[in-house]
Design a protein that fits this description.
By secondary structure, this protein is α+β, with helices and mostly antiparallel strands. Helix 2 (27-34) crosses helix 3 (38-45). The protein is built from four helices and ten strands, in the order H-H-H-H-E-E-E-E-E-E-E-E-E-E.
Length: 190
Amino acid sequence: MQHHRPGIPHTLGADLRALRRARGIKLADMAVALGRSVGWLSQVERDKSDPSITDLRHIAAHLDVPVSILFRHEAAPANEAGYVVRAGTRRPIGSSVAGLVEELLSPDLTDDFEMVHCTFQPHSRIADRVTRPTQEVGYILSGTLEIEIAGVTHRLDPGDSFRIRGEPFRWANRTDTPVVAIWVIAPPVY
């Protein structure tokens, strides 16, 4: 019988497999890096084995994701799991650095993309440009966000959207109010 500890989603293995594959890491290479057997890692990815908290920390570090993405605060009712994410049960993702709070809107990371709810705090910004091998589209719900894409700065207001295709980018909220945006990223990076 399979046992799941509270707070760990039943889709943990599928999320881990999706993140590993999105990074082009072979199962055997990751097992070696973790000092574990291929069989063990395969069982974790098929939800046949529960990794310890320490295992999860090592896996998250190897995938370069915050360990928080591997936890769900509240299990969804069985009829909603994998389909519906309630506002109060979104998983925090990202590192919350620089005044950006990100929450996963997708039920898990097994799609070809992920949808993220982003809140940029007043007077927050990232200094360094970010470049990642993704296609991304964002939509501004409220507030005014400055985004620099490939060296060109754009001012985005509610209802505006943007696309990034692997170009270096950085953002800033230079206003006194938060900016809320919906951000879609393919493949999932968190």
